[in-house]
């Protein structure tokens, strides 16, 4: 498993009238987590796009436990749970300032050829960068 942590602070505009982070904004937090996880592996989204690879979200599942509030410093823990093929699976945990689990989610994204709009295999370089984190798969 590959695990990466990103920290971000809740902005005022991300909160609702109750003072909680609006539920829809968590999807953006997950996006930040996965973009930074791939960047840390040496494969930023921009480079994937330059190679003609797109990564649309196929599905998103979320379970909320506790709310985050304005100005909280959150940790988004992003886990790639298996080596990618045509799809890549991410799991997320959003932790509050004290480490409390606020919510957990998962997404599945599909590697798509930008020219044809058809699914394609994950770039070989990305798979190779992930292989050390999955020793039993090598």
Give the ordered list of helices and strands: EHHEEEEEEH
Mean pLDDT: 96
List the uncertain runs: none
Q: What's the CATH H-level homologous superfamily?
A: Hotdog Thioesterase
Mind telling me the C-alpha Rg?
A: 16 Å
* Helical percentage: 10-25%
The number of domains: 1
Strand content: 25-35%
Total DSSP E strands = 7
Shape: globular
CATH level 3 topology: Thiol Ester Dehydrase, Chain A
Distance between the termini: 13 Å
- Overall structural class, as computed from helix and strand content, comes to alpha+beta
For the biggest sheet, the summary is: 5 strands, antiparallel
> How many helical elements?
3
Strand arrangement within the widest β-sheet reads: 1-4-5-6-3
> What CATH first level would be assigned?
Alpha Beta
Under the CATH scheme, the architecture is Roll
Can you walk me through this structure?
It is built from 3 helices and 7 strands; from the N terminus they run βααββββββα. The strands form 2 sheets. Strands 1-4-5-6-3 form a 5-stranded antiparallel sheet, covered by helices on one side. It has one domain (2-131): Thiol Ester Dehydrase, Chain A (Roll). It is α+β, with helices and mostly antiparallel strands and 138 residues long.
């Amino acid at each position: 498993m590959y695990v990466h942590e990103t920290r971000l602070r809740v902005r005022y505009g991300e909160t609702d009238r109750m003072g909680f982070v609006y539920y829809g904004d968590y999807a953006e937090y997950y996006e930040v987590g996965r973009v930074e996880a791939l960047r840390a592996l040496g494969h930023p989204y921009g480079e994937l796009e330059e190679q003609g690879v797109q990564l649309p979200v196929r599905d998103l599942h979320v379970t909320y436990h506790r709310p985050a509030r304005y100005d909280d410093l959150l940790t988004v823990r992003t886990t790639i749970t298996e080596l990618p093929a045509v799809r890549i699976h991410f799991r997320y945990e959003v932790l509050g300032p004290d480490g409390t689990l606020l919510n957990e989610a998962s997404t599945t994204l599909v590697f798509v050829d930008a020219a044809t709009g058809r699914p394609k295999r994950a770039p070989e370089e990305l798979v190779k960068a992930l292989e050390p984190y999955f020793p039993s798969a090598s």
